[in-house]
What we know:
Largest sheet: 8 strands, antiparallel, barrel
Helix content: 25-40%
Structural class: alpha+beta
CATH architecture: 2-Layer Sandwich
Radius of gyration: 21 Å
Amino acid sequence: MADFPPVPLTLEGSSVLHQFFRFDWKAWRATAAGERERIAAEFAGVLKNLERSAADAPVRTALYSELGHKADLILVHFRDSLEALNQIELDLAQTRLHDFLAPVHSYVSVVELGLYESTRKTYEAAEAKGFAAHSPEWNAAIAESLQRAAAAMAPRLYPAIPDAKYLCFYPMDRKRGEQVNWYTVPYAERQSMMHEHGMIGRRYGDQVRQIISGSIGMDDWEWGVDLFADDPVAFKKLIYEMRFDEVSAVYALFGQFFIGVRLPVEGLGGWLSGKLLH
């Protein structure tokens, strides 16, 4: 592997936007009751259209009530392009409820599947055919392999938002310091560490649905991590166990953590009057 490119192959799918808003409760309470009802109904209608394209279509937008001081509401959107995400921002900005929403954070990324395991096999297969790295023949072989993998993994690349009660989102980096730098570790060692790291996640597969999105060149961190579960304690247990893993213990940096409770569109009116629909 010494002569192979050090970069693992990746597959990219849905474009992802996380929006975090603080709600102006004072201005909302000062608004007449009838007007509040009309504003809420308008926004709920827009959300319903964003949530899914048809009754039997996958959920591509979800609303969460944020716990803690960082925000009041979280909106998560999965779409097929950045343009579609930008249109969502514009659509929401046209609603009257948007006047009560102050954006406090956002995150832009794209669903990513890292192919540490299969990258080595793909590179070795191309080399066995006599293709020099980065030659047209090499690039064509890699592209063909990625195309096959993308077709096989389409459900993971273009996922629906899971129907779970709780969301945990956080961004993360790999360290690039003078003493500890993930990007200077030999490929084989990184592959081995990522395999062990992935095994921990698989053990929690029946409790937590995990969606990783890449954000290098798109936002301030390198990856965004979405965890979905019906038991929020599962987030704590999974992340705690992963911190004993070498990839996290030595090479990971974590940003802020955000946790929210799923808020169905039909529960928005109740939330706006101070009642969380369970």
